[in-house]
Structures are given as structure tokens and as C-alpha cells.
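User: C-alpha cells in, sequence out, please.
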């Protein structure tokens, strides 16, 4: 199996995730606003759940943003690890090429 990823893939993904975090809070508040016409139409546990969601919208947004922040931290760590690995591989290749005896590989006489 071959895994091929460009050197900017994780950085671009991180920017996208940051934008998603901002959008998520907005979407949750838009959902609460869109549900306003339904207020008063629920009874029993449905009403309790709906009211709880409305009251906890900021907390839910914060929790989800915290989770996305953790994902972003993981993406950043992976980006650092891949970058370090790529550089280490290049350094090792240059070091090994410097130690190689290319003269012995010549076939001309």
C-alpha cells in the first residue's frame, strides 16, 4: 500500500478545520433561531429536551468547538511529525550519498 500526501495537505486541512469551528457555532445558533416557531408546540419530555437544547446552545457550541480544537491540535502535531520525517529522510539520503563510493560503480575502462 502506498500513502502519498503533499507537504501542504495537513496545513490546508488545519485551515479548513479552523473555519469549520467558526461556522459550527453560527450554525448551532441559526438552528436555535430556526426552531423558535416550534416553541410551545412540544409537551412532556419533548418540550423538556427542546428547552434544554435552547438553554444549552452556548455550552453545546463550546463543547463542539473544544472537540474541533483537539482535532486541530492533532492535525498540527501530524503536520509537524510529517515535516520532521520528510526532512530527516532527506538528511539521511544526503548523508548516505556522501558516504557512498560512486567511483567503484563506473563500468568504463
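Assistant: Sequence out:
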Amino acid at each position: 500500500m502506498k500513502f502519498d500526501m503533499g507537504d501542504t495537505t495537513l496545513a490546508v486541512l488545519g485551515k479548513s478545520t479552523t473555519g469549520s469551528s467558526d461556522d459550527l457555532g453560527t450554525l448551532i445558533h441559526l438552528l436555535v433561531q430556526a426552531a423558535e416557531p416550534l416553541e410551545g408546540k412540544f409537551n412532556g419530555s419533548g418540550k423538556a429536551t427542546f428547552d434544554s437544547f435552547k438553554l444549552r446552545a452556548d455550552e453545546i457550541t463550546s463543547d463542539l468547538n473544544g472537540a474541533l480544537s483537539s482535532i486541530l491540535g492533532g492535525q498540527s502535531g501530524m503536520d509537524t511529525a510529517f515535516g520532521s520525517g520528510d526532512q530527516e529522510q532527506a538528511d539521511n539520503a544526503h548523508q548516505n550519498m556522501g558516504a557512498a563510493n560512486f567511483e567503484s560503480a563506473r563500468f568504463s575502462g
